[in-house]
């Protein structure tokens, strides 16, 4: 399952000072009211950004329908706009004020995509390419205990679950949900079915039902690792970091070889502003999964910036740019790197000119 590096997502970097607009002085007698209005409108438009983008799958297929794009402010979560992609998989947000935002892209059967965007110094046109990856279950470590309720579930419940699995493989979330609901109606303590049902509800943004199903799974089988992982991710996504910690810690104890728990623990500690505790969790996740190197580099850069360790943050940003020069965070990180190099916050000789 590709993380989103973010689990849940990445909270990268602080505000940087914006540029100053030049002003012109006009003699009142030389300007009509219409001219003044036109000049005011043109001046206002210079302070806006036009955001455009296209959404594809990890196989390069353009998503022509069933995909929603949401733009909201980074800190207050004020909704600027939400729209479906057009038949070319494209979206547009016009006249976006120059602030920091989070772009969220959702599509049935795919992982939720979140991208921080800093428009405070952006040009008037800003384009992004979005790649969505299919939903994948967290692989259990070999030492993880199985769901105890599997053998206890009656045949009819297991039959419904098998149908749900086929629907999930075909990315038919609605059909999968129907079969999973029937499975847990037959046997409410069917932990595996409750967990998958919770995952489906989460993908469909019904977070209250998702949480209820996942907590029911853990109540029936506290040792079922997948339920701990899914519930921990859900609580982190809802910024309920204090509640996520014990769930993730329990999962980590049951399956110490699963990198996802450490990655999510890092996100939870970061959300609670425990930056010193977030760092080792991210590093442990990376040690268990080398494919996380770029994602962890971004996370650690953010941690070090929060701690004021600018040289360490700069090194991690350079590490990311070297690994993914065309990565989705690359443009934003290059802007931050340039600001750090010119601001004098780096130790002598550390800046790459």
Q: Quick recap of the structure?
A:
The protein is α+β, with helices and mostly antiparallel strands. Helix content is 47%, strand content 15%.
Secondary-structure map with pairings?
Blueprint: H1 33-46, E1 48-57, E2 67-73, E3 79-84, E4 90-97, E5 100-107, E6 113-118, E7 125-132, H2 155-169, H3 173-186, H4 191-203, H5 207-220, H6 225-237, H7 241-254, H8 259-271, H9 275-288, H10 293-307, H11 310-323, H12 330-343
Helix pairs in contact: 2-3, 3-4, 4-5, 4-6, 5-6, 6-7, 6-8, 7-8, 8-9, 9-10, 10-11, 11-12
Helical residue percent band: 40-55%
CATH homologous superfamily caption of the largest domain: Tetratricopeptide repeat domain
The CATH architecture category of the largest domain equals Alpha Horseshoe
Query: What is the helix tally?
Result: 12
CATH class of the largest domain: Mainly Alpha
Task: Indicate the radius of gyration in whole angstroms.
Answer: 23 Å
Secondary-structure element series: HEEEEEEEHHHHHHHHHHH
Number of strands: 7
The major β-sheet equals: 4 strands, antiparallel
Helix/strand-derived class?
Answer: alpha+beta
Strand order of the largest sheet: 3-2-5-6
Describe what this molecule looks like in 3D:
This protein has 353 residues and is α+β, with helices and mostly antiparallel strands. The protein starts with 32 loop residues before the first helix and ends in a 10-residue tail after the last helix. Helix 5 packs antiparallel against helix 6. The strands form two sheets. It has a four-stranded antiparallel β-sheet, with no helix packed on it. The chain folds into two domains: 47-132, Immunoglobulin-like; 155-343, Serine Threonine Protein Phosphatase 5, Tetratricopeptide repeat (Alpha Horseshoe). It has helices at residues 33-46, 155-169, 173-186, 191-203, 207-220, 225-237, 241-254, 259-271, 275-288, 293-307, 310-323, 330-343; strands at 48-57, 67-73, 79-84, 90-97, 100-107, 113-118, 125-132.
């Amino acid at each position: 399952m590709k993380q989103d590096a973010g689990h849940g997502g990445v909270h990268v970097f602080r505000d940087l000072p914006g540029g100053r607009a030049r002003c012109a002085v006009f003699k009142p007698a030389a300007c009509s009211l219409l001219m003044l209005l036109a000049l005011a409108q043109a001046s206002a438009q210079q302070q806006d950004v036009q955001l455009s983008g296209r959404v594809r799958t990890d196989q390069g297929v353009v998503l022509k329908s069933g995909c929603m794009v949401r733009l909201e402010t980074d800190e207050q979560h004020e909704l600027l706009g939400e729209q479906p992609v057009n038949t070319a998989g494209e979206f547009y947000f016009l006249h976006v004020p120059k602030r920091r935002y989070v772009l969220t892209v959702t599509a049935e059967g795919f992982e939720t995509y979140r991208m921080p965007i800093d428009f405070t110094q952006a040009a008037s046109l800003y384009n992004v390419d979005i790649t969505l990856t299919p939903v994948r279950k967290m692989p259990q470590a070999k030492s993880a205990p199985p769901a105890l309720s599997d053998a206890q579930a009656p045949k009819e419940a297991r039959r419904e679950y098998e149908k749900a699995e086929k629907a999930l493989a075909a990315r038919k979330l609605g059909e999968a949900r129907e079969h999973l609901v029937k499975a847990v109606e037959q046997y409410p303590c069917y932990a595996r079915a409750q967990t998958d049902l919770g995952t489906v509800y989460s993908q469909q943004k019904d977070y209250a039902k998702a949480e209820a199903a996942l907590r029911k799974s853990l109540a029936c089988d506290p040792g079922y690792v997948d339920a701990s992982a899914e519930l921990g991710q859900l609580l982190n996504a809802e910024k309920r970091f204090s509640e996520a910690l014990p769930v993730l810690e329990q999962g980590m104890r049951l399956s110490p070889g699963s990198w996802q728990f450490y990655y999510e623990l890092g996100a939870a500690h970061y959300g609670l502003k425990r930056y010193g505790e977030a760092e080792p969790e991210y590093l442990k996740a990376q040690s268990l999964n080398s494919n996380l190197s770029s994602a962890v580099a971004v996370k650690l850069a953010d941690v070090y910036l929060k701690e004021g360790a600018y040289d360490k943050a700069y090194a991690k940003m350079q590490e990311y740019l070297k690994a993914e020069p065309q990565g989705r965070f690359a443009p934003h990180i290059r802007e931050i790197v340039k600001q750090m190099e010119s601001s004098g916050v780096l130790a002598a000789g550390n800046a790459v000119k």
